[in-house]
Amino acid sequence: MRVTFTVNGREETAEDVWEGESLLYVLRERLGLPGSKNACEQGECGSCTVYLDDAPVCACLVAAGQAQGRRVRTVEGLAEQGLDPVQEAFVESGAVQCGFCTPGLVVQAHDLLERVERPSDAEIREALAGNLCRCTGYEKILDAVRLAAERKAAAR
């Protein structure tokens, strides 16, 4: 099957996609966008989180065919004009260690800050609840989201 969809603002086509192939596989292996990580393949860790038509989804759970005619935005797409403020805040706050969970956390935090200008700690924790990290202990991740929120609010 052929799947044509918009990825980070550009129309892309994947040829010979088999029925069970995930959107994550197409993004990483066919389109060369390795930012979203393949960790659990069960939608439990959030490492593969991308936007599908402006809603965060676990790309490992989305069949590639479901993306037909739709818009996908990956962590790479957040940095099209330099690093996004969320990405910058993760780096500056030391919220990146091994980096495996980072793309999904960044996309999920980005989505939160698009919806809530100054989220409380409880709102941040709830928004990131589906994203697992084994390295940082989450405190630096919370610091990063708080910093990004401050900067985004100041820029408005």
Main attributes of the structure:
single chain; 156 residues; alpha+beta; five-stranded mixed sheet; 6 helices; 13% strand; globular
What does this protein structure show overall?
The protein has 156 residues and is α+β, with helices and mostly antiparallel strands. The protein is built from six helices and five strands. Strand 3 and strand 4 form a beta hairpin. The longest helix has 17 residues.
Would you summarize the structure shown here?
The protein has 156 residues and is α+β, with helices and mostly antiparallel strands.
Q: Topology, pairings included?
A:
Elements: E1 3-7, E2 10-14, H1 23-30, E3 49-52, E4 55-58, E5 71-73, H2 75-78, H3 85-92, H4 102-115, H5 121-127, H6 139-155
Parallel strand pairs: 1-5
Antiparallel strand pairs: 1-2, 3-4, 3-5
Helix pairs in contact: 3-6
Shape: globular
The helix fraction, in percent, is 25-40%
Rg computed from alpha carbons, rounded to a whole number of angstroms: 15 Å
Strand residue percentage: 5-15%
Summarize the helix and strand pattern as letters.
Answer: EEHEEEHHHHH
Structural category: alpha+beta
The tally of strands reads 5
Strand order, sheet with most strands: 2-1-5-3-4
Please mark out the parts with pLDDT under 50 across 5 or more consecutive residues, or reply none: none
Total of DSSP H or I helical runs spanning 4+ residues: 6
- Cα separation of the termini: 44 Å
Mean pLDDT reading: 96
Main sheet makeup:
5 strands, mixed
